[in-house]
Amino acid sequence: MTGLTPYLSFPGTARQALTFYREVFGGELVLNTLADFGRNDGPPDAISHGMLQGPVELFASDAADGEPSLRLEGVLFSLLGTADPGTLEAWFAALSSGGVDIDPLQLRPWGAHDGQVTDRFGVRWLIGYEG
């Protein structure tokens, strides 16, 4: 393991969210359903465990009945300097699609570019680069 990998619990939208993130970031997507794992504690096609592996790594599942699902407050997923400026700008634009620009990606007085966006699944991202 090379670092922290967020594990998100979605309210029945894990497949859609992880597919969206693969479209944004690229990488390999692995989706395992409840049926794949022989579980019967929810809809057979619900995601029991999903993984996006690539330049941005995420794990996710669908919350089971009675379990809390994604609700983020005071949390930013920071992608500061994690790719070249053009890639980061493309990621910001893609995450903005169907989401909300909190603070546009722009040049700051200290010389860096950054911005914040909450995507359509409720995840808030801080994206930026130097120079």
UniProtKB/TrEMBL annotation:
Residues 12-125 form the Glyoxalase/fosfomycin resistance/dioxygenase domain. SUPFAM superfamilies: Glyoxalase/Bleomycin resistance protein/Dihydroxybiphenyl dioxygenase (SSF54593). It comes from the Bacteria. Transmembrane segments: none annotated. Gene3D superfamilies: 2,3-Dihydroxybiphenyl 1,2-Dioxygenase, domain 1 (3.10.180.10). This is PhnB protein. It comes from Microlunatus panaciterrae.
